[in-house]
Design brief:
The chain is an alpha/beta fold. The chain has 31 helices and 37 strands. Helix 9 crosses helix 28, helix 15 crosses helix 19 and helix 15 runs parallel beside helix 21. Bound molecules: iron/sulfur cluster (3 copies) and FE2/S2 (inorganic) cluster (FES).
């Protein structure tokens, strides 16, 4: 600790702290316009000048040092602060009362007040640029832009999309997109970082405009008139009294605008934010305090909420009658569900019923669904869609380290010296995690290796990009493990102390030579040796993987091979190391954690463990089934075989997202009784007998668990749309009509029960999760959680990890003469899965209207295909018609189809082969025949899609270029206006 004096008050502080943070923490009031704690020093505004030993310095860019005597209010400091802010006001017109940003958090407004500015010494001058409205979600008003550069810093160094810059050398600097494009035609991915950090109204969400204020919806002419009036009275009255009027208006807004914390309903990153609303209108999403994301979001979290108020939300239960659906009351629909489920149970036994929980819904809802299956019906036939993606990764970790979850946190991925990404299009599927890796790679020298079939953004950024043959990851990963062991560069101390099974594992590695790996994977031996060297030389390695690994017949084994490799290199148990299977859905981790699995009760407690079963049986006051139930895949088979008669599914688009969709659809149509609960009439509803209208995440309370095992609360932003109900209430209603006497009045009561029965969550309480607080499981009874999972040992009785021997099997559904092309599939940044929610968002539809198939330039040339050509893809299982997009992201005879389509779902083409251990479909093993159709349409991706932009990478805002301007002087040394013509 060091001693410093701030305005005469001596304090003991940490030496590395920035002065501005210290002053703020100590309750000081130095202005700071460009500084944002999550961006670090930007140094463009000069308003934070303080005096130290007679010298003026920027408090935002100076670290505390022993003995500093800081004066924040000396005449010299104050004059510099005012002078700097005067320059800012020359770029910004203060019309707060009629500004949608007048919400108490406008930095320009608040600084005007803090510095008691009464008059502008440098007059406001308009910039010679038009307002840019070309992005569907936000707009830029150059006239209000104070050139603080926060947006540039956020785009370049936090999001690392590298779209924004400021043309400091121009007589009239402004923010530029791609160096001078319109926003709409730029590389902007609409993540909203820039809008979130803008300290004024220069960048604003369009949903705010005309809605946030009481007077801001006035016609433009009236607004301009009012602005003129303000300008007119300012010389006489000064800003003080004008600000008083705007503050009265701001106070009125306080009563009308609600700010409610929620957690994103899309991917597993677990971004959380406040949602600002006025009645049922979303004003904006404001990320700031989220433990996983801070100021970060992607387009879906920031702007993807149009589905909530979509006109086609389900608001009435529907009952199938005579081949058609008719509306019904809740009472009638629930009565019918209860009667039919009871009758089928009575006739065919409890195991003739199955339950599918939703990994989009809350932990509490998954808990109730599995409780309904087990305690009320008496079957373990319950599963969730982690079966489609994540179960193999969980299995790989169960086998080797004990817990089925990420072994650290997103912050560990940031800290790693080397990140290896395998089979994950992270920038599109887990965008905010990608930002952290991109940023560490760009700014902190982190090394990045990417292995994928496609040369996507992360691959392009990588220091080393591997393009192995499909389905061969297990081989090259195991060969690297063998190479490290053979050459004595494995971490023998770690192995001795923490790992069992080395001898047997080494024996199993015999076939995995580098030579064989190069032959099988197609990755040159030298490249594989480079990977081995990079891993062994890095101090801390994280491996991130996703469905490119798990959705193969050897998904579990390849996940195991990844963990084996981390073990032999000692990359567990330390910050910056570990295994990170990136969870796809927002709550796919939580759905399994809370027991929506056929073999596990909540907290991964086995159904065949008598002690566990007894604990739950006592807690629930029932007898429980002891044999493992059917998983999703087995359920479909069992329907076809006539064993499964009824199914109750909520929040899951099974008919499109399960593999071999035609086979699944045929199965669903054979069900004797099928209940589907959703927010829209999904494709799966077409097979239902009863459809129940549920509420989306913004209309719910509860908890989600993100990929880093982080449990977070979501609060109710809106009341459930009239006619719809939160899923937990519906499940409870059905359970009670089946004779259960559940009396949960609030999801917190459900969680209390979870915690009481599940050691993994023993200390989870709603109080400990209040607001933006979170817990990363396991959570001990005293509330201690574990951001880094393995600190004192692994989750096995002796605390030691286990190396797990593996063999390679041949991938399925291989190309042959007829089905000659390999088809890969996955997500797209803008859409979530089939697009049931995201196609209802106008801006997303505008930018990404349809699905497509990516075709390599070589193949396109060979077959006469151009972007927009319609093609028919035929696999051994089905057919789709889709437009081609020619791109060098794919190579040779490999195709890629994103999964966002209800009309042409890629899963009509995929097979019923599965991972042998977990039954996760081998979605990534598919071969097709491509027929070029005569029609040529528009390119499936419009020119305004970000993929056609041209980013302008640079290191942040590059303030040094501003300082080099002839008209720039450090404030305090004479008043100079930055903008001159
Ligand atoms: S990508 Fe677009 S929305 Fe995101 S920070 Fe950059 S300019 Fe802003
Ligand atoms: S648009 Fe960018 S540079 Fe302009 S005020 Fe906003 S954050 Fe600052
Ligand atoms: S989709 Fe994922 S990355 Fe995007 S905001 Fe939501 S949680 Fe964050
Ligand atoms: S806050 Fe320090 S220069 Fe802007």
């Amino acid at each position: 600790m060091v001693k410093v004096a701030i305005d005469g008050v001596v304090q003991e502080v940490r030496p590395d702290e920035l002065l501005i943070d210290l002053i703020n923490r100590a309750g000081g009031s130095v202005p700071h316009v460009c500084y944002h704690p999550q961006l670090g020093p930007v140094q463009t505004c000069d308003t934070c000048m303080v005096e130290i030993d007679g010298r003026l310095i920027r408090a935002c860019a100076t670290a505390v040092a022993d003995g500093m005597k800081i004066s924040t209010k000396s005449a010299k400091a104050t004059a510099a602060q005012v002078e700097a802010f005067d320059r800012i006001l020359s770029n910004h017109m203060l019309y707060c009362t009629v500004c949608d940003n007048n919400n108490g958090n406008c930095t320009v407004h608040n600084t005007t007040k803090l510095l008691a500015i009464e008059h502008q010494r440098i007059p406001f001058r308009s910039k010679p640029y038009e307002v840019d409205n070309t992005n569907p979600f936000y707009r830029y008003d150059p006239d209000q832009c104070i050139l603080c550069g926060r947006c540039v810093e956020a785009c370049q160094n936090v999001e690392v999309n590298e779209t924004l810059s400021i043309n400091w050398e121009d007589p009239n600097p402004r923010v530029l997109w791609d160096g001078g494009s319109t926003i709409g035609e730029s590389s902007c991915v609409s993540c909203g970082h820039c809008v979130t950090v803008c300290p004024c109204n220069a960048l604003m969400e369009k949903t705010m405009l005309g809605h946030a204020g009481f007077l801001t919806s006035l016609k433009k002419s009236a607004l301009s008139g009012m602005i003129e009036i303000v300008k007119g009275v300012e010389p006489e009255t000064g800003y003080g009294s004008i600000l008083q009027v705007s503050e009265a208006e701001e106070a009125m807004r306080e009563h009308r605008t609600r700010k409610t914390k929620t957690v994103c309903t899309y991917c597993g990153v677990g971004c959380s934010f406040d949602v600002w609303t006025k009645d049922r209108h979303i004003l904006k999403v404001a990320p700031e305090h989220g433990p996983a994301n801070g100021i970060s979001t992607c387009v879906k979290g920031k702007f993807g909420w149009g589905h909530i108020n979509s006109e086609d939300r389900l608001t009435t239960p529907l009952i199938r009658e005579g081949g058609k659906f008719r509306q019904a009351s809740w009472d009638e629909a629930l009565g019918l569900v209860a009667r039919r489920l009871s009758a089928i149970k009575a006739n065919a036994g409890p195991d003739s019923l199955a339950f599918i929980s939703s990994s989009k819904c809350t932990n509490e809802e998954s808990y109730l669904m599995q409780k309904l299956a087990r305690a009320v019906i008496g079957t373990n036939n319950v599963d969730n869609c982690s079966r489609y993606c994540q179960s193999p990764a969980t299995m790989g970790l169960f086998r080797t380290v004990g817990y089925g979850g990420d072994s650290g946190s997103i912050s560990d991925m940031e800290k790693a010296d080397l990140v290896l990404i395998i089979g994950s299009n992270t920038a599109e599927s887990h965008p905010v995690i990608a930002t952290r890796v991109k940023s560490s790679h760009k700014l902190d020298g982190q090394k990045l290796i990417v292995s994928d079939l496609r040369e996507h953004e992360m691959a392009r950024r990588a220091d080393l990009f591997l393009h192995p043959n499909p389905g061969t990851d297990l081989f090259w990963l195991s060969a690297i493990s063998r190479y490290l062991l053979d050459n004595g560069i494995a971490h023998s101390k770690f192995l001795d102390q923490w790992v069992n099974g080395l001898a047997e594992y080494r024996k199993s590695l015999e076939p995995f030579t580098m030579e064989a790996a190069a032959r099988i994977s197609g990755v040159p031996e030298e490249t594989l040796k480079t990977v081995a060297r990079m891993i062994s030389e890095a101090k801390a390695v994280c491996i991130l993987w996703a469905m490119g690994v798990t959705q193969h017949i050897q998904g579990s084994d390849t996940s195991t091979a990844i963990s084996n490799l981390l073990l032999i290199t000692g990359n567990y148990m330390r910050p910056g190391t570990g295994s990170y299977p990136l969870r796809g859905h927002n709550n796919v981790q939580g759905a399994s954690d809370h027991g929506a699995m056929p073999n596990m009760l909540p907290g991964y407690q086995s159904v065949d463990d008598a002690e566990v079963r007894q604990r739950f049986a006592t807690g629930w006051n029932v007898k429980l089934p002891s044999t493992k139930g059917l998983d999703n895949h087995e359920m479909v088979e069992a329907i076809h075989q006539g064993q499964l008669k009824a199914m109750y599914l909520f929040g899951e688009e099974m008919s499109l997202v399960d593999s071999n969709a035609n086979f699944v659809g045929d199965g669903l149509s054979k069900l004797g009784f099928f209940v589907v609960q959703d927010i829209f009439f999904s494709a799966t509803c077409h097979f239902a007998d009863v459809v129940l209208p549920a509420s989306p995440s913004l209309e719910k309370k509860g908890t989600f668990t993100s990929t880093e095992r982080r449990i977070q609360r979501l609060y109710e932003v809106f009341e459930p749309l009239e006619g719809s109900r939160p899923d937990w209430r519906i499940i409870q209603d059905i359970a009670n009509r089946l004779g259960a006497k559940w009396q949960y009045r609030h999801p917190s009561e459900i969680y209390r029960e979870v915690a009481s029965l599940t050691p993994l969550f023993a200390g989870v309480t709603y109080e400990r999760l209040e607001g933006f607080k979170s817990l990363q499981w396991p959570v001990a009874a005293d509330g201690t959680d574990q951001p880094l999972l393995y600190t004192k040992g692994f989750a096995f009785p002796d605390g030691k990890a286990r190396l797990f021997p593996l063999n390679l099997s041949e991938p399925t559904d291989q190309p042959n003469a007829e089905f000659d092309l390999h088809l890969n599939n996955g997500r797209l940044l803008e859409h979530f899965h089939e697009g049931n929610m995201t196609y209802r968002i106008e801006g997303i539809r505008e930018k990404t209207p349809d699905t497509f198939v990516e075709v390599s330039p070589e193949l396109a040339k060979q077959r006469g295909i151009q972007s927009g050509t319609w093609v028919q893809l035929t696999s051994r299982y089905g057919q789709v018609r889709v437009r081609a997009l020619v791109t060098d992201r794919v190579q040779g005879k490999q195709l890629y189809m994103p999964m966002n389509s209800v009309e042409s779902p890629v899963n009509r083409l995929t097979s019923s082969y599965t991972d042998a251990v977990t039954h996760t479909p081998a979605y990534k093993e598919a071969s097709v025949h491509l027929r070029v159709l005569p029609e040529v349409g528009e390119s499936p991706l419009p020119r305004i899609n970000h993929r056609f932009g041209h980013p302008t990478p640079q290191h942040g805002v590059e303030v040094e270029r501003k300082w080099k301007r002839a008209d720039y002087r450090v404030p305090g040394n004479g008043l100079v206006q930055i903008q001159t013509n």
